[in-house]
Amino acid sequence: MSEKKKFNIEYEIKSSPRILYTFLNEANGLTQWFADDVSVRDQIYTFTWDDEKQNAKLVTLKENKLVRFKWLDDEPQCYFEMEIIQDELTNDVALSITDFATEETIAERKQIWDNQIDYLISTLGA
């Protein structure tokens, strides 16, 4: 099995950090764009896609700024993170995604994020 590599992508989002944040850390918000269903219990998020469940632990949370999840069945160094970045001069808001994938699957994984973020933007009405 090849080693997973960290990658980062950034998306401009026309939303306030406060509103965007609720879509990144609350089960209801995540269900609207990230997964078919999301439930939370004791910092463990259960994400469901097409009746397939995956569990992730919420490992870092900074209000209106950042959420980091660690898949329970993934390699120890791997996580996925969604960080809200706001430009101090223009107040433009961007969403920075950090994730891990094998070299062969990075392009596919980026495409999945592109699709999910497009869906998030349409959900936000941004």
UniProtKB/TrEMBL annotation:
Pfam families tied to this protein: START_2 (PF19569)
Lineage top rank: taxon: Bacteria
START-like domain sequence ranges: 1-126
InterPro entries attached to this UniProt entry: START-like_dom_sf (IPR023393), START_2 (IPR045736)
Protein known as: Uncharacterized protein YndB with AHSA1/START domain
Organism of origin: Mucilaginibacter phyllosphaerae
